[in-house]
Amino acid sequence: MNARFERLGAYTFLCLFALAVLLPLFSILSVALQPQGAPVTGLSWPDDPQWGNFARAWTTGSFGDLITSSMIVAVVVVPVATVLSVMTGYAFGTMRFRGSTPLFYVMLIGIVMPYEATVVPLYYDLRQFGLTDNYLGLMLPEIGLSVSFGTFWMRAFFLSTPRALIEAARMDGANSFTVLFRILLPVARPAVTTLMVLFFVWSWNEFLLSLVLLQDPAVRTAPAGLGLFVGQRTTDVAGLSAGALIVTVPVVLVYLFLQRHVIRGMLQGAVKG
After folding, report:
1. Is the pLDDT of residue 42 over 50?
2. CA–CA separation, 193 vs 176, rounded Å?
3. Three-class secondary structure assignment of the chain
4. What gap in Å lies between CA 211 and CA 19, rounded to an integer?
5. Burial of 134 by CB count in 10 Å (0-12 exposed, 13-18 middle, 19+ buried)?
6. Which of 87, 178, 198, 233 could potentially form a cystine with 174 if both were Cys, beta carbons 3.0 to 4.6 Å apart?
7. CA dist 95 to 89, 155, 164, 183, 191, Å?
8. Tens digit of pLDDT for each residue in 215-263?
9. Which of 91-95, 186-190, 258-262 is the least confident region?
10. Which first-to-last residue range defines the signal peptide (predicted)?
């Protein structure tokens, strides 16, 4: 009986949580399908859904170019930040060297310090090197911000791996790279996949850095472009809602495609932590 009530309570909580997540999405979708200029009706489904609002928003907001720019940045940031995070996490999690602890705390500054405070000096520094208004100028800060968390994430995982496994490999003559790539990485695949998904979401949703560093419309990313689209079309609520959903679609697709790996990575970290 107690198990039945516990299961009922768990399903009730999950349903309420799902409802809290889905209701705003349903509301935005219903608004996006309203006729242009119609009053916002909240959660009511329109009598004549205007699916053409998405095509209109795609064309007028140049979301094809914006999404391409975001994809170019994410395709570079995610693998580079992941490789660097795995390497640094492996070093801090399995090796002992002088200054490792202070150096690790220095790496954590990227997590605890709000990067918004550094955007203005960062802009002037990058402008001095000619790195504004191009993808590289946005990729480098995003990689730096991602590696701080990635190092923390992967270090926690490598610390939880059995030391006997690493010592046995070293006794068989395996060097550090062999231990990492042949022994630890196959086990760490869920954690690495989860980290890559997080990096993709953060890179895709990055707004402030893109808005400040990329003034050229030709290289502007989707969140910054959506922000300017909102500023230009304040009265077209249906078009704004359609644009917001268009920008959200890639992140949702990535998560749906990799959700099993993400859940495994989260559970793996929770159990081992």
Report:
1. yes
2. 22
3. CHHHHHHHHHHHHHHHHHHHHHHHHHHHHHHHCCCCCCCCCCCCCCCCCCCHHHHHHHHHCCHHHHHHHHHHHHHHHHHHHHHHHHHHHHHHHHCCCCCHHHHHHHHCHHHHCCHHHHHHHHHHHHHHCCCCCCHHHHHHHHHHHHHHHHHHHHHHHHHHCCHHHHHHHHHCCCCHHHHHHHHHHHHCHHHHHHHHHHHHHHHHHCCHHHHHHCCCHHHCCHHHHHHHHHHHCCCCHHHHHHHHHHHHHHHHHHHHHHHHHHHHHHHHHHHHC
4. 33
5. middle
6. 178
7. 10, 10, 14, 16, 20
8. 888 899 998 888 777 666 656 788 888 888 999 889 888 888 887 777 7
9. 258-262
10. none
Rounded CA separation 223/214 (Å):
12
Find out whether 57 and 63 touch, Cβ atoms under 8 Å: yes
Q: Could you tell me the two tokens for 241?
A: 């809602």
CA-angle at 116, arms to 235 and 197, nearest 5°: 80
Q: What is the pLDDT of residues 54-66, one digit of tens each?
A: 988 898 888 889 9
If you search the block for the tokens 């999404």, which residue do you land on? 67
Contact 73, 221 (CB under 8 A): yes
Conformation bin of residue 175: beta by default, left when phi > 0, alpha when psi is -120 to 50: beta
Lookup result for tokens 């932590």: 273
Residue 22 burial class via C-beta count within 10 angstroms: exposed 0-12, middle 13-18, buried 19 and up: exposed
CB 245 within 8 A of CB 32: yes
> The tokens 């793996």 sit on which residue?
268
Encoded tokens for 86: 């795995």
